[in-house]
Amino acid sequence: MYNFAFHRPTSVADAAKAIGAASDGKFIAGGQTLLPTLRQRLAQPSDMVDLTTVAELKGIKIEGDGITIGAMTTHAEVANSADVKKTIPALAALAGMIGDNQVRARGTIGGSLANNDPAADYPAAVLGLGATVKTNKREIKADDYFKGMFETALEEGEIITAVHFPKPEKAGYEKFRQPASRFALVGVFVAKTKGGVRVAVTGAGPGVFRSKELEAALGGNFAADAAKGVKISADGLNGDLHGSPEYRASLISTLASRAVASAS
User: Fold this and answer.
1) What tens digit of pLDDT does each residue of 221-242 get?
2) What residues form DSSP beta bridges with 165?
3) Which residues pair with 186 in a beta bridge?
4) Domain range holding 203?
5) I need a surface site. Which of 84, 113, 205, 250 has the fewest CB within 10 A?
6) How far lies 104's CA from each of 31, 79, 80, 201, in Å?
């Protein structure tokens, strides 16, 4: 690692002030992506601003038409939350599928969304449920938040403070794990909401995306067989040693069918 100044603010305002004064500052949440990057000397920040000491960024509460989760809430806390299990069981199940026990104990929802790895799980839940990403400056709808591989609508120095998930009528998530990393080779989140059916796919392409074909099929018949019969185009999907674009396309329909079958 290179030398850097380390800050431990106790409020969002202080964190924003610290990052604003840095020439090339980085926020650190759970550190699941940033720390390995630093160890490999692929990043050389002037300052590191630790968000783990900011209490106002933590916590889970039932609010309005759904549930709000603080940005520094860990995956394990989401997975084990009675409120999340009661309000959106699929979200708790998704959090329990992330990485392993060590990753779930350290990784945070805000860190995952700020990083926006194209194979991460939380982006599928946020987009699939039509959630709202709250920051220290504004609120961003899920459809406007994700911009591509590791790209989001966040501005320089903007801090995710919480995510609000509206309660769906039904929702389910299924993924095919990459066995080494446990990231999603393909993951599909389906949700039947008041505004219609939403289907979000992670792992298959350069970033999380909605499947209009599956949404149309499930909008007419929210049933596992309806999803299984949808043919997904392989155009633009990822291809690597783990699976071809055609294989991933086939997985999308299969996993969507399973997600509908498990939806609650």
Assistant:
1) 999 999 999 999 999 999 999 9
2) 67
3) 176
4) 170-262
5) 250
6) 12, 9, 11, 21
